[in-house]
Structure prediction request, 472 residues.
Amino acid sequence: MSLYIPFDNSFAELPPEFHSHQMPTPVGEPRLLAYNQDLAEALGIGAAEPEELARVFVGNEIPAGADPLAQLYAGHQFGSFNPQLGDGRAILLGEVVGRDGIRRDIQLKGAGRTPYSRGGDGRAWMGPALREYLVSEAMHSLGIPTTRALAAVATGETVWREGGLPGAVLTRVAKSHLRVGTFQVFASRGQVEALKTLTEYAIARHYPEAEGPMGLLRAVRDAQVELIAAWMSVGFIHGVMNTDNSSIAGETIDYGPCAFMDVYHPSRVFSSIDRMGRYAYSNQPNIAVWNLAQLATALIQQYDAPETVVEEATEIVHAMPDLLEAAWLKKFRAKLGITTVEEGDMGLITDLMRLMAEGQADFTNSFRALVDGDPRDQFLDPEAFDQWEERWQQRLQGEAEPEAVMRAVNPVLIPRNHRIEQMIASAVAGDMAPFERLMAALATPFEVRAEFDDLRRPPAEDEVVKATFCGT
Ligand code: AMP
Ligand code: MG
Prediction:
């Protein structure tokens, strides 16, 4: 009896130029590291022994109904266009329609080479696989749209990076893996029919109420606005907001050198490859607009007379900064317990953020301390905070339940970098206990639970992680 997965594939039915059929490359000794039982059940996946789950989710055994393939896409990487990327180490097994009626991709990441691997080995090592597992599930528990993690399996093989590292495959679940770059590849090649097919497919799958390419553009914009505002509200830095890592479904996707900030600083960068700060924390809204402009440019190529829609496309893109500001304001008002709208709110929020930056305050702990803690303790210069607090207390008059509002949006726990690094070191040494403990804690990030108090602590000086490295 083999693992039951209720596959119902649609992307595989698209014309051949969309993908390459590709089997995963088997590995020697698969070993299940983590499995998301709740997600499996929500997707209607049957039960199986760990050994069988390991074989399936490493790519050694292909379950009935799977139609493994690598997807084609292009993308702007750090601003320069790469005309062909594609799944270089990811293989889509197929899609399932979950209990909630939503269609989702089941994809193996690190399952071997594909026709799009270029120089790469098609593999991933355990560190980034477990990092993505943990951070994407934490993101989900924070209520932020994201791909999910279904399984992590050690391959028993060595992956060569700066040295030899233990290999792993991550099984990722996504509303789809359609990216801005999926549109760009056909637009840049002048494949108008493929572009039309893709547009129809994306609308039917994600935004059935959207009308035509411009309707799709508007819907993607609105989803990205919500996503970026949500990232900003928890101090999340994606790290590589290339157009190939920008999801049409509006999910956080492709966790590479991402990080949650400890000490707040608007220009914080973690990614070791982001030397110019293009994807710095406070630049993420600008980049989201830039990426949407690339989608607009691609989408208009399918009109017989593109010049007739340029104005509408421009208007859709140009509206994005104001929408981002409004979504950001809404999130940060709530972080201060404010549900009503007043003229001075922007100033109240940005003044606090400036004090946080100057006072080297911990992003997560400062906001949470506003509702249960002593926020003064978070600042190098507590007196500067006192004046701000007076203004804030005045603003809160007339707010019905500011504390409940704040507790629901200011997390107690985030996946802190130094904890992730410690977890990876343990996992590599064969100890999954820190991973499991972090997973348990991050499942309820808004709850104060005494047994996880140590996970609230920012890194000590010698624990600070200065850079995160690309998820290869
Ligand atoms: P990323 O920066 O992870 O979004 O990846 C950018 C591109 O490089 C994508 O096309 C990936 O599939 C490809 N890629 C990344 N790592 C590897 C690898 N180890 N082997 C093959 N392709 C890879
Ligand atoms: Mg990517």
